[in-house]
Amino acid sequence: MALSIRKIHPGFAAEVSGIDLARSLGAGEIAELRAAIDDRAVLVFREQDLTDEQQIAFTRHFGEIENSAGGHIAKPEQNRLDPRMIDVSNLDRGGAPLSRDDRRRLFNLGNRLWHSDSSYRAVPAKYSLLSGRLIARRGGDTEFADMRAAYDALDAETRAEVEALVCEHSLIYSRGALGFTELSAEERAMFRPVRQRLVRTHPQTGRKSLFLSSHAGAILGWPVPEARAFLRDLTEHATSPAFVYAHRWRPFDLVMWDNRQTMHRVRRFDEKEPRDMRRTTVAGDGPTIEQPQAA
Ligand SMILES: [Fe+2]
After folding, report:
1. What is the tens place of the pLDDT at every residue in 204-250?
2. Which of 2, 8, 21, 279 is the most exposed place for a label (fewest CB within 10 A)?
């Protein structure tokens, strides 16, 4: 079975076939996948019916698993999965869909907004790997936007303007955008904003990209409304149809993406029905910019 990589969008994203992610992979295959994710930023693997352990083992080929602490409001006793897995389902511990007004569900609705995973962490995530164990019957597509192409398409003046800008990212901003503002003092402290460069350069390819996310809610040195209006403009530009690949899930798809080069969002689906999606995340190598010293 030879590994093959087929482009599924003119600018980015590819479907990888001829590989079984449940078995142990050779160094050559991993090297090919690394090169493919650097180049295409989103990789789709079909028909990968993985256990959590197999998904974790595959993820570990690409680096350390990110610690999920500080990225959600669920209490430890509410967790359904191994702490190395991020539960992107709409399910409670008993496997039933969360009720409409469940706080965890409302918090998770933030995933409907364009974002880059963990951009609210001082060290933002490198890769995310999302496994579709039980997919939505209708809707629930995951859309990806190519932030390199978005950067390349900026006019020279805007490119110069964004070059040195630094944003503040926090879950408080993305949830606040949906009116989810009731956070405890503890949660507010946990979601304290972090700084991120607005333009980042991919360490392997040298390509620049816009590091946007709905978690971004301020630009250092800018009045807040002006910053948010500008970030909205940039996001609108960056997510225009030419830069977007919409992934229509089939059961047991595994989609891997590079958070340094893309944004993504999930589209609406019927949350009365179970949808079981499980994510593993590869931690980033370091911050995009130094953080201020904690007071
Ligand atoms: Fe996400």
Report:
1. 999 999 999 999 999 999 999 999 999 999 999 999 999 999 999 99
2. 2
Question: Separation of 179 CA from ligand 1 center, angstroms?
Answer: 19
The first and second tokens of residue 190, run together, are 């946990």
Contact 111, 275 (CB under 8 A): no
Q: Cα(156) to centroid of ligand 1, in Å?
A: 30
Residues with CB under 5 A from ligand 1 (ion): 117
Cα–ligand 1 centroid distance for 114 (angstroms)? 8
Ligand 1 mean position to 116 CA, how many Å?
6
Instruction: State pTM to two decimals.
Output: 0.97
